[in-house]
Write a structure and sequence with these properties.
The chain is built from 11 helices and 7 strands. The strands form 2 sheets. Strands 3-2-1-4-5 form a 5-stranded parallel β-sheet, with helices on both faces. It has 2 domains: 186 residues, Vaccinia Virus protein VP39 (Rossmann fold), CATH 3.40.50; 72 residues, no CATH class. Helices cover 37% and strands 11% of the residues. By secondary structure, it is α/β, with parallel strands linked by helices. 39% of the residues are buried.
């Protein structure tokens, strides 16, 4: 296996570059799949390779034999505490989708139609890609409410030979300056709810202290001050709120890379 093959990482639902920046710190680069044009513009400005496409519709066949690492952060809006949590109603359908994919049966179209929020079913996509591509390592991230689905995914991956771990991590334990589960002390989690143009820094009691600008919010997510956010102010805050903090991404991938290189050597 060539060095180029070993370092090729596929990033599903790539977002503005949280995983990409985390990988860059390790000397790795990813190829992201992302559908939002503003997000793709941010990735391009930051120098991250992107395929603008729908992860659920993108074929896996052209990627077989070309991916050593798989990363995925499915959209969290349907499961997040900041959203309406329609995903809770869709959990049984998502579990069914995982089992069907593991059996080689693609029922996604029918299940998506039955979902309260069709985005909920995107959480099954990492398993589809993993079973089709068989990468050396896999790293998935989502809000804590998705843990039962990730545990299910891990069980199905273990059945085909992967060693797996699932759990809830606090980003503050990995160098991020906020207690995001996913310097006085770390800041509380930044709340990017419906008022995306009014993101406030809150104290421990939840009382707003003051509004944050884009650069401050991005810094609390672990991005450099010079990161080239694109789109409207609202779109920029949306991208920051949805991004995986780069320091957390680096910490999650670092222990996986040596193992992957050893296997591939």
């Amino acid at each position: 296996m060539t060095a180029a093959r070993r370092s090729r990482v596929l990033d599903l639902f790539a977002g503005p570059g949280g995983w990409s920046e985390g990988l860059r710190a390790l000397g790795l680069r990813d190829m992201g799949i992302e559908i939002d044009p503003a997000v793709c513009a941010t990735r391009a400005a930051a120098g991250h390779t992107t395929i603008r496409a729908d992860v659920a519709a993108y074929p896996t066949a052209p990627l077989r034999g070309k991916v050593s690492g798989l990363i995925a952060s499915p959209p969290c809006q349907t499961f997040s505490a900041a959203g309406l949590r329609a995903g809770n109603d869709d959990l049984p359908l998502c579990h069914q989708g995982l089992d069907d994919i593991a059996r080689g049966s693609d029922t996604r179209a029918a299940l998506r139609t039955a979902c309260t929020d069709p985005r909920s079913l995107l959480v099954v996509e990492p398993l589809r890609y993993a079973l089709d591509l068989r990468p050396d390592w896999i790293a998935l991230e989502e809000v804590p409410a998705v843990l039962p689905l990730f545990e299910h995914t891990a069980h199905l991956l273990a059945a085909v030979g992967y060693s797996t771990w699932t759990g809830v991590l606090n980003a503050a334990d990995f160098g991020l300056a906020q207690t995001r589960r996913r310097l006085d002390q770390p800041a509380p989690t930044l709340l990017f709810g419906k008022a995306l143009n009014d993101v406030s820094w809150i104290d421990a009691d939840g009382t707003p202290i003051r509004r944050l600008d884009v650069t401050e919010a991005a810094a609390l997510q672990g991005f450099p001050a010079s990161y080239p956010w694109t789109g409207s102010r609202t779109k920029q805050f949306e991208q920051i709120g949805n991004a995986v903090p780069p320091p957390l991404a680096t910490a999650l991938v670092r222990p996986l890379v040596p193992a992957a290189l050893e296997v591939a050597a």
